[in-house]
């Protein structure tokens, strides 16, 4: 059996978390050789380096520092640099995760060079094209030859867009990541002690979506919602750099009674925080699912979600939507072996 070479493109925090179990599985597979590009989209140590060091992800083979702050400038810069790497590496496939500008750039670079594209976390839809992520995921799905879906809803979404070949269901890599990391986090993380929290007596909030941060009129009610919840129990709020910048621009102060502000935390700290929380308030896709993985109810600070099964099964609700549905287990997301399944699927497909 010949060895397949794969170039993986990552650039943001959720992609490092997804790469953690899959790169590990690829390293253990003798018939695959993975080279990793880090586009530099996230660059702060606590948004990037900490994930590589804590989770033992191999350092990237190519690490850019991406120029440009607009979507076009950033994506264009990444596209040109990724293309250079692909032209010299000529891999058998390119793998991209999720829905960021790094995903879009990796997908376009691969497609233009005729290199097969694997899209992990395919088929997710918010049906809101005002979200930059929605554009990125639609393009990546329509360019990919191998589409790895974490849910049956995702497969249905692709079918509705006429995409039926190369589509596979393989569980959710974030579930794998959580299963691997939580026992380590329980031993190693001191985050509860550092923040003075005791188990089951606090909530966790995260906010970073453009729709919530780009307009002061949107961010103020989100902060008010968190502050209101913080009257019942302390809410730990690790604030994303984009949100810090947005709050500064808008003159908003997150330090309200009960809100425990902190810098973004590493993944192990986040696992421990979520594991012992009573409630999660978030506009993050990943954190909505992780709330369920840790069996903590979630309020999504958005008007729609891609992870509809979390709402259908009563673990999540939209902040302006109806109350929780009756609670039941979610059948999707797999058993923590999504990475192994994805390696097997790529073996068969490439
Ligand atoms: N996360 C983290 N530290 C934090 C906030 C989030 O490690 O301070 C993790 C979280 O547990 C999840 C991932 O980052 O695994 C989610 O990333 P993010 O919310 O930035 O992106 P999204 O999932 O919305 O694409």
Fold blueprint:
Elements: E1 4-10, H1 13-27, E2 32-38, H2 49-55, E3 62-63, H3 71-89, E4 93-97, H4 101-112, E5 117-120, H5 132-143, E6 146-149, H6 152-160, E7 167-169, H7 173-188, H8 191-195, E8 203-206, H9 210-213, H10 216-229, E9 235-238, H11 241-250, E10 259-262, H12 267-275, E11 279-282, H13 285-293, E12 298-300, H14 308-312, E13 316-318, H15 338-349
Residues 13-14, 17, 174, 206, 208, 238, 264-267, 270, 284-287, 290 line the site of uridine-5'-diphosphate.
Description:
With 350 residues, the chain is an alpha/beta fold. The protein has two domains: 4-172 and 334-349, Glycogen Phosphorylase B (Rossmann fold, 3-Layer(aba) Sandwich), CATH 3.40.50.2000; 177-332, 3-Layer(aba) Sandwich (Rossmann fold). Helix content is 45%, strand content 15%. It is built from 15 helices and 13 strands. It has a seven-stranded parallel beta sheet with strand order 3-2-1-4-5-6-7, with helices on both faces. Strand 5, helix 5 and strand 6 (146-149) form a beta-alpha-beta unit. Helix 1 packs across helix 15, helix 3 packs across helix 4 and helix 7 (173-188) packs across helix 12. The protein is globular and about 60 Å long. Bound molecules: uridine-5'-diphosphate (UDP).
Summary of the model, kept short:
The chain is an alpha/beta fold and 350 residues long.
CATH class of the largest domain: Alpha Beta
Low-confidence stretches: none
- The CATH architecture of the largest domain can be named as 3-Layer(aba) Sandwich
Tally of individual helices = 15
What summary fits the major beta sheet? 7 strands, parallel
